[in-house]
Design a protein that fits this description.
Strand content: 5-15%
CATH superfamily of the domain at 81-270: Glutaredoxin
Distance between the termini: 99 Å
Largest sheet: 5 strands, mixed
CATH topology of the domain at 81-270: Glutaredoxin
Shape: extended
Number of strands: 5
Order of helices and strands: HHHEEHEHHHHEEH
Radius of gyration: 25 Å
Strand order of the largest sheet: 1-5-4-2-3
Number of helices: 9
């Protein structure tokens, strides 16, 4: 009886080892499948970005990889050091939200499909508008920076620019706030849906969109951000505002309101 029992135990142990081995193989196969899918998604994202705006700096690509690896937004937004001093950006009156006589300006570079940009627009910017921009102390400028959203963000950016032609800059800022507050993908269809509330000449709007009228402008704004030291979205240049120019420094990432409050208070105190 003992011999039979020993045989049964040995067979049972053999089956357990086989099952354990199969489980290990299945786990490795699943991990490989996950990694393969992740790499495929990353490759697709990088391809769409490169198609949208050529000559993307390596630091921007590094930031995207960091995001896909699950890093915190602040890490991803600060892959490269900010330009230290003396960043200069020239503006035109049509871009400025708030007083054109403000002493300080914030220039934001942002991507509609960047979740951290949405966080800034829904949580932080409304407080900045209420406490600094509405009072006339600070001006605000929004510029597109095509990054993680690739062609989808490019299409949405061009559509909002076509809308700005007719609704003006103040309402344009309201439109982009609605884009950021919307759930899901931020694409051209979303913009078209949101502009239904405005009395637009749709024939003019559709012609503008069909002609890709603002593609070069959006690409140029992205390159301006890159040249200014912006390495991820959102990125900001904050500084003295005079004669249509902002001279300041780069602030990287979706920082909390208190960070902007500190920078703006110090800047205003230095420019009474």
């Amino acid at each position: 009886m003992e011999e039979n029992g020993t045989v049964v135990v040995e067979k049972t142990n053999s089956w357990l080892l086989v099952l354990l081995l199969l489980a290990v193989i299945a786990g490795l196969a699943f991990s490989f499948w996950q990694l393969s899918n992740r790499l495929d998604r990353l490759e697709q994202n990088l391809l769409t970005i490169q198609e949208s705006v050529p000559e993307i700096p390596q630091a921007t690509i590094d930031a995207i990889i960091t995001l896909q690896n699950g890093a915190q937004p602040e890490q991803a937004a600060q892959q490269a050091p900010a330009n230290p001093q003396g960043v200069k950006i020239s503006l035109n009156d049509a871009e400025i939200y708030g007083s054109k006589d403000a002493k300080i300006a914030i220039v934001e570079f942002s991507d509609f499909n960047c979740p951290f940009c949405a966080r800034f627009h829904t949580q932080t910017l409304p407080k900045i508008i209420q406490n600094y921009i509405d009072s006339g102390e600070v001006a605000f400028v929004y510029k597109d920076y095509i990054g993680v959203g690739g062609n989808m963000s490019m299409d949405a950016a061009m559509a909002t620019e076509c809308a700005r032609e007719q609704i003006g800059n103040d309402k344009y800022l309201g439109l982009i706030e609605q884009v950021y507050a919307s759930a899901g993908r931020k694409n051209r269809d979303l913009v078209i849906k949101l502009i239904e509330q405005y009395s637009l000449d749709m024939e003019q709007f559709n012609a503008c969109v069909a002609d890709d009228k603002y593609r070069q402008q959006v690409a140029d704004d992205t390159r301006l951000g890159q040249a200014s030291g912006i390495r991820g979205t959102p990125g900001f240049v904050i500084g003295n505002f005079k004669d249509g120019e902002v001279v300041g420094t780069v602030v990287a990432g979706a920082q909390p309101y208190e960070v902007f409050e500190n920078i703006l208070d110090r800047s205003l105190a230095a420019n009474p």
